[in-house]
Amino acid sequence: MLLIHCPYCEEDRPELEFRNAGEAHIARPENIAEISDEEFAQFFFIRSNPKGLIYERWRHIHGCARFFNAVRDSVSDKFLMTYKAGEKRPAVKAGEKA
Amino acid sequence: MADASRAHPLAGRKVANSAVTLTPAEPAARLSLRARPDGIAALSKALGVKLPAAPKTSATSKSGARVALWLGPDEWLVIDTGGGDPAADCAKATALHSAVDISHRNTAIMVEGKGAEATLSAGCPQDLSRAVFPVGACSRTILGKIEVVVWRTGETAFRVECWRSFSTYAFDFLEEAARDAAIAA
Fold it and tell me: Does any CB of chain A come closer than 8 Å to the CB of residue B142?
């Protein structure tokens, strides 16, 4: 079982307590009623899906119930770091790459 | 008029073997409390329990009848076993908060004995050893297929809070785990 570090509980917890919540750092357009269908589709449906480092939202649903962000390697499934929601996207050094 | 009486979901159930005893907890008043940091002091005063701020910790009132369990950074489960009304006490605080009475949503199972830890570990993925889950520690987590709140009340005693409708599942699960714990002990 993977252990995921919850930045709110401040410890590693079993993955069963967590739920993935999609890609992180996607800002909802503030003028949502005015944007075109294409722009909306871009915001709503299109995800980057990279091979390698990915920034994701996770939720500690069966724990503190908080959303937070994680940097994960989509190849090895290894979590590189987690940080609280609202914090800036951290720069992850290539050396930390799993 | 029909006679409306409230039945305990686990009435009459009890398990006792050489390693562990399972007892349905007595009915208690429970509160799901949400508040921002600036309201904690006022709510603590109103409740008579200092709401814990550190993850996985709990705080008990002077009388011992009321406890506040840390569930999240702004969320607590308050349990009153002394016949008090924590919802009414919260209403005295003017600080912004949300207090929902969940006395009848939850029920609890007391797991006690030298095999208590092993019994819970049959279905709980968290490390419940005393080094990382000391007396007083509490956490929302998983037991088998359901979500529970586990609170360590003593060296070999836990209180497992689960939803009322899930309580037969929880009790059946723990009953089977208790059998295994007795064999292993």
Answer: yes
